[in-house]
Design brief:
The protein is an alpha/beta fold. The chain folds into 2 domains: 384 residues, Glycosidases (TIM Barrel); 81 residues, Golgi alpha-mannosidase II (Immunoglobulin-like, Sandwich), CATH 2.60.40. The protein is built from 16 helices and 22 strands. β12 and β13 form a beta hairpin. α6 packs parallel to α7. The radius of gyration is 24 Å and the shape is globular. It starts with 7 loop residues before the first helix and ends with a strand. The relative contact order is 0.10. The structure holds 1-deoxynojirimycin. The site of 1-deoxynojirimycin (NOJ) has 9 residues, from loops.
């Protein structure tokens, strides 16, 4: 078995806060730092060790904070830099580390660098972005065919300059020209600023997109994200990340990079432990494609084989040489119970899904509301959605000729807004998220049943299960450092794996169906010799070596 280097970032578990919908502390309908401060004890009570804040920075909020207008200030709706320091200090006092979102592929079009860059071709900030002449003057044709990853062209015309600027996301998110050494110096200064303030690491937004191929060549003509082959893991990515790592190396901090379209083989180029390592971990997307083709907007029936194959690849290929970042939800994903589990068996499947990924090798990330089993929302009109990607994709699908009803069905299922409804704190008005009459975005009508207060009062709630699970992981090194080996690979209903460490073994059984499935302990396992450490049903006799599974059953056996 490979020798694993121990580190705090491997042992921790992380809670992700998407600030706008977490908790409103000042009664204006929008989540904020005051609300976060109020709920730090709750976060701590889960048994996590760190909080990752989705962007809190000053931003016009076209992409809800992923369009930054000032990297060194807080969005006024959320509070002030002083409020942030209060949260940071309070978190540290409670033993919680703080991870910031580093969004450096692009800024907001309201960032002062961009405003300057628009002033003229000889402005020193002009070369901070990708300004290009069109193929024809007068705004008729951009210099290449690249398309935004959110639909539409990746270029926006500016008549005063008779030039176009590149934006891989919305037109309010111009891409930074990382090839300009001055831009990289700015980024390093921003990294230092937050680390000097005391933060403990960064989640790095679409970090694998920051280096574009020279000359920005024509892309392979696909309708969305055309040109990606010229900026995904581009020519200077390793070099630029190594420069940033030199800065972070001066501090005790961790980095996790968001990496769309990533494979384990490619990831190892960046996260293999040793001299060339430029990031501690990467968020990959392969396990989020078990019910869709690449993105949730191209839905397909859920396929457990696909899910298991993705996990198997990442678990085995990284073990002993790199480290996984494990998640099943975040602010870009619909709720996982509605996708891979069952709303009918919400509590059972919520616990099973938690066990399934938290017991694997890697650092677990838990998204706000996931721990109480929040589910997707269904809104009747596209106008009720607030996310720009949702609105744009709806328009694209309608333009392609799909009927409204069909597109709404996809929207309900695929929208990122599913994960962005306010956290349901109680059965009070607006789920206790705000005292304002109207929250900034719709509360899921199921809040009277699904909320933190109700979950606190029920020892068998998903919330209390998460607490037991995270405690178990912390108390059992095998759950952190053990290896991973799958059983019954061909089953389309069960996901079974074992972990091994220093003579100990752990067996994890997960059923992905409400139907009974016959389970027999894999060869070499005698359940009567193990301890049933976790389960989502009472088990009358845990020592019997075979059983019929209950709906979405999960069991964790420990063999010491
Ligand atoms: C990934 C972020 O998670 C997402 O929310 C955002 O829209 C894009 N990057 C652009 O920053």
């Amino acid at each position: 078995m490979a020798e694993i280097k121990k580190h705090w970032y491997k042992e921790m578990s992380v809670y992700q806060v998407w600030p706008r919908s977490f908790k409103d502390g000042n009664g204006d309908g929008v989540g904020d730092l005051k609300g976060i401060l109020e709920k730090l004890d709750y976060i701590k009570s889960l048994g996590v060790d760190a909080i990752w804040f989705s962007p809190l920075y000053k931003s016009p909020q076209h992409d809800y904070g992923y369009d930054i207008a000032d990297y060194k200030d807080i969005n006024p709706e959320y509070g002030t830099l002083e409020d942030f320091k209060a949260v940071l200090n309070a978190a540290h006092e409670k033993g919680l580390r703080v991870i910031m979102d580093l969004v450096i592929n692009h800024t907001s079009n309201e960032h002062k660098w961009f405003l300057e860059s628009m002033k003229g071709k000889d402005n020193p900030y002009h070369d901070y972005y990708f300004w290009r002449d069109g193929k024809q003057p007068g705004g008729k044709k951009a210099s290449n065919n690249w398309k935004s990853t959110f639909t539409g062209p990746a270029w926006e015309y500016n008549a005063a300059l008779d030039q176009w600027y590149l934006h891989l996301f919305t037109k309010e998110q111009p891409d930074l020209n990382m090839d300009n050494p001055k831009v990289r110096e700015e980024i390093k200064e921003i990294i230092r600023f937050w680390l000097d303030l005391g933060v403990d690491g960064f989640r790095e937004d679409v970090i694998t997109f920051i280096s574009k191929r020279e000359g920005l060549p024509t892309g392979f003509p696909i309708p969305v994200a055309c040109g990606m082959e010229h900026y995904k893991c581009g020519p200077h990515l390793d070099e630029y990340l190594a420069e940033f790592r030199k800065v972070t190396d001066d501090y005790d901090c961790m980095t996790v990079g968001e990496a769309p379209m990533m494979t384990p083989k490619l990831a190892l180029r960046f996260i293999r432990e040793g001299a060339g390592q430029v990031l501690n971990m990467m968020f990959n997307f392969q396990h989020m494609e078990a019910d869709c083709f690449m993105i949730s907007w191209i839905p397909m029936p859920f396929n457990l084989h696909k899910l298991k194959a993705a996990y198997d690849r990442w678990q085995r290929k990284l073990y002993g040489v790199a480290w996984n970042a494990n998640y099943i939800e975040n602010h870009d994903q619909p709720r996982v119970i509605s996708r891979y589990g069952s709303e009918k068996y919400r509590v059972e499947s919520g616990k099973m899904l938690a066990t399934m990924y938290i017991c694997q090798s890697g650092t677990p990330f838990i998204y706000q509301g996931q721990e109480i089993g929040m589910t997707n929302i269904r809104l009747d009109s596209v106008d009720d959605y607030v996310d720009i990607q949702t609105k744009d994709t709806y328009k694209l699908y309608r333009k392609l000729g799909l009927p409204h009803k069909a597109v709404m069905k996809i929207t309900n299922r695929a929208s990122r807004d599913n994960g962005r409804t306010p956290v349901q704190w109680s059965a009070e008005a607006n789920a206790g998220f705000t005292t304002a009459e109207t929250p900034w975005f719709a509360v899921n009508p199921n809040y009277k049943e699904i909320n933190v207060a109700a979950a606190e009062a029920d020892p068998d709630s998903i919330l209390n299960y998460y607490r037991r699970l995270l405690k178990f992981r912390k108390e059992n090194e095998i759950c952190i450092y053990g290896d991973f080996r799958q059983h019954y690979k061909r089953s389309g209903k069960l996901f079974v794996y074992e972990r091994n460490s220093q003579g100990q073994r752990m067996l994890v059984v997960n059923s992905f169906t409400e139907k009974p499935v016959y389970f027999e302990a894999p060869q070499g396992f005698d359940l009567s010799k193990g301890e049933l450490a976790l389960s989502n049903y009472p088990v009358a006799d845990q020592s019997i070596n075979s059983f019929m599974t209950k709906p979405y059953e999960t069991r964790v056996y420990l063999f010491k």
